[in-house]
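User: structure tokens for this one?
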Amino acid sequence: MTENVVNEAAPSPVQSFSPVSALKADVWRLYGGYSAKLLMKAAVTKPFFRPLLTHRLFHAAEALPRCLRAPCKGVLKLMHRGMTARRCMQLPLTCRIGPGLLLKHSYGLIVNGGAVIGANVTLLHHITIGGSRNGVPKLLDGSTVAAGAIIIGGITIGRGSTVGAAAMVTKSVPDRAIVAGNPASVIGEDKAARTPYPAPLERIGK
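Assistant:
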């Protein structure tokens, strides 16, 4: 793997989507659609959705009037801390998460507070996305990270790529590549889209 094979030219929706629209995309990843009823269903029945819900609501609170903003963010911060602690998870409120994140059985998920996660990304359990002296990882749209993988440093995981279980990734991954091993190396190319229920971002709106 080399660090100049990743195409980052296309804009990512990480910053362009509002927290509310991003939340709709998150629900879509679970059920292949969105409604208020499905949002409530996810909040009640999907334990690993709840930390993502509090993350989105914390940032949505920025739009509240000043008199409500601080107390609401304070309550949501405490809720988020509780939701993540129960699942041995670190999903800092400072990390930038694009719309349509799917967390599957994500016990032990550790994400650096400076990490950037693109749209329609899938993360499984016991994953570490950590920083080093040369920066923090960036996961581009449609990437999938399997259980036990470790991604370290200022590297980029390409669009539509797959990081295999227990892989140790310290170099950038090309778009649509499949990597595995310790240290990770490219073992194939993922020509078909594997993202389950990808959220149609153009329909959901910003």
